[in-house]
Amino acid sequence: MLTTLRVLLLPVLNALGPVLMAFAVIMLIPAVYSWTENDGALMDFIMGAGITAGAGLFLTLTLYRFRQELTARHGFLLVTLSWALIAAFAAIPLMLHMPGLGFERAYFEAMSCLTTTGATVLTGLDELPHSMNGWRCFLSWLGGMGIIVMSVAILPLLGVGGAQIMKAETSGPLKETRLTPRIAETARSLYLIYFGISVACAIAYHFAGMHWRDAVMHMMTTVSLSGIAAHDASFGFFNSAAVDAVAVVFMVICGFSFTLHFVAWRRHDPLVYLRNPEALAWIGLLLVLIAAATPILYLSGLATSVPDALRAAAFSIVSAASTTGYATSDWSLWPCGLPAILLLSSAVATCAGSTGGGLKMIRVLILIKQAKREFTLLLYPNAVSPITVGDAAIPNHIVFAVLGYTLLWSFSVLAGAFALLATGLGSLESWSAAVACITNLGPGLGTVGPVGNYQGLTALQLDILTFLMMTGRLEIFTVFVLFTRAFWRT
């Protein structure tokens, strides 16, 4: 056991030191904004930054002799501990500003922001200091592309390699694909694309009618697909077709793979989106759902005109399918099974390499192809039937990984829902909250629906959902591998 600690845990804790110190510096950004606004939250951020920096410095200095190049096992452990600990430190300003909030609720809120889930236990958002709302949105923006991906560009400068970390955090089954030869350059390239889309989104929101403050905050939660809002009424606060349209456009953009954005930008060829099967499936699913929901909303009387029905359907469907979770209406009350369809879409729609959550569309395509191959082999047992997605042949080891991932993902939803049921939460809330948190959607159905929140849940229920949010964001295997005996074997 002591050997395991020396070889595995202590080098990871040492690598976490610089990450925490960098995060402490980031925490000074809302502190400066609070100072300029004089909104009363300055000392909350200063104290939070001081505690975080102190912890990071302690780990760096006391464990300096364990500093070494990280292996694959170190990478998995570092990713998981980074998300768990950074969420804890990110919760400090929330707890200091709202003493009655408590650690579980503050930690749930911070984890929801970092994992871009968008579930909240807070009310009275319109009365919160702008810097505190900005902190929640900023955490989502950081989490959108991953705190660890950002750190990949920094850790090599400290003598800690980032390749294994990048592989552990990156979403999707085809993790070995690189955009550039060096992993740090890949991280910087992705952030360049991410930053460019963010700037464009903020400008578009402002010209659509938002104040610059709202434009920047909601830009952060749009490009990260988190759905965290600075108002209790979410996007219903703005009641603007232009604002809704901007949100829809950028939610769709960020539902694509950022590697695809990079390729389109590098080649100056927007047609790459039309040649990518996953991108076409993402857009195709959205169009099918919007086309189906629009007449239902109009004929059921939930919309007074076809344009209003189209606007409501497009916004809510793109918001749910992209795992953003913004709300302009209570889609949990829509007829004809639409609420369940929207909840299910959050699990399958977005592309791998996007800021969205869920299983990812590429895995769904592989599962469909595998099912088709099984039918072929039933009829022609000796047939050679490779699985292809577009022009790419999918190796069997990836197919098996997708099957295993889907099984473990489904088991996690079931286990989470049954755990919530055992705590006394209602069946509708239990099942929908489990799906909404593991897909990083946020709103579920019932009291935790689009116009509700998670405030009424107990500390234990929030702990269960917090774990689901983190495991969903880190794609199950990264977290669950830590619970295997083989991982800790020296």
TrEMBL record:
Q: Is-annotated flag, keyword Glycoprotein? A: no
- Which keywords describe this protein according to UniProt? Cell inner membrane, Cell membrane, Ion transport, Membrane, Metal-binding, Potassium, Potassium transport, Transmembrane, Transmembrane helix, Transport
Compartments in which it is found = Cell inner membrane
Q: Return the InterPro entries for the record.
A: Cat_transpt, TrkH
Q: Which residues form a coiled coil?
A: none
Q: Can you quote a single GO CC term?
A: plasma membrane
Family of the protein in this entry: Belongs to the TrkH potassium transport family.
Identify this protein by name. Answer: Trk system potassium uptake protein
Q: Which organism is it from?
A: Sutterella seckii
